[in-house]
Amino acid sequence: MDDFSFSIFPNENFLDLRLYQYGWEQCTPLHSFGPFVRNHYLFHYVISGQGQLRSNDRDGVTHNYDLEEGEGFLICPGQVNTYSAHKTKPWKYVWLEFDGLRVSEYIESAGLGLSQPIYRPQTPAQGEQVRDTMLYIANHSQASALHLVGHLCLFLDGLIQSSATRRQLRGGQLKDFYIQEAITFMEHNYHRELTVEELAAVCKLNRSYFSKLFKEEMGCPPQEFLIRLRLSKAAELMKTTINPIGDISALCGYPNQLHFSRAFKKRYGVSPRQWRAQNRQRTRRS
């Protein structure tokens, strides 16, 4: 029988960075999970033993990765994956499921993604720090939501700083200024129609250069980031107000409620109505 700990994060008010579930597990020989598709990012760190990840890359090609103690693996939203324990040296791992507006940027900074899901630390000590931060979250499910999100920030920073595939940034100060200008403009104008040309003009940049720069720094095109922002704002309004979903849709830049529902379900895995019902139930229990 597997030995494990599992918890669900009790609060979804955090839009820039959200923690969904976390835990650890000592698997039995050949124990496997999948094939499965996640709606959010899922990261496992191998504490001991061995196992294998089977996942598809950006082009849909399936790869097998053998992992051992001190390594980790990332599963991205929408990625088909299966992972299984070794038949004689089954692994024990700790995991975190998380997401947020800028998570794709952080993951890319660590040099991880669909085509590079395997984490290897630059030194064993750095890997152990990542492990210990994850275990702290997994073993403190009774801590406040803000406390756990703070440690999720520490985990992501540790992941970036320690990753052997870390992306080295050069000349980032001016780039950061441009990107922050665009994000601030989106945060103030997400309720209306926005074009890439308008965002580029705000930064006083050529459209194609702005799009390239934004994707390099944020890990996704500006249009996709705007969709995430709108849907996050909608989720916040559904949780904190009793406004009809149609009104919230319009307030968040979706005059067509059907288009909003489709986009929301693609992002969160459930319809806006289901999300609101589930969220209210969670609020009453907490």
Q: Layout of helices and strands, plus pairs?
A:
Blueprint: E1 3-8, E2 18-26, E3 32-37, E4 41-48, E5 50-56, E6 62-68, E7 72-75, E8 80-85, E9 92-99, H1 103-109, E10 118-119, H2 124-138, H3 145-162, H4 172-189, H5 196-202, H6 207-218, H7 222-240, H8 245-251, H9 257-268, H10 272-285
Antiparallel strand pairs: 1-2, 2-9, 3-8, 4-7, 4-9, 5-6, 5-8, 7-10
Helix pairs in contact: 2-3, 5-6
What do these coordinates show?
This protein is α+β, with helices and mostly antiparallel strands and 286 residues long. The chain has 2 domains: 3-162, Regulatory protein AraC (Jelly Rolls), CATH 2.60.120; 172-285, Homeodomain-like (Arc Repressor Mutant, subunit A). The protein has helices spanning 103-109, 124-138, 145-162, 172-189, 196-202, 207-218, 222-240, 245-251, 257-268, 272-285, and strands at residues 3-8, 18-26, 32-37, 41-48, 50-56, 62-68, 72-75, 80-85, 92-99, 118-119. Strands 1-2-9-4-7-10 form a 6-stranded antiparallel sheet, with helices on one face. The protein has a 4-stranded antiparallel sheet with strand order 3-8-5-6, with no helix packed on it. Helix 2 (124-138) runs antiparallel to helix 3 and helix 5 (196-202) packs across helix 6. The two termini are 30 Å apart. The model is unreliable at 9-14 and 281-286 (pLDDT under 50).
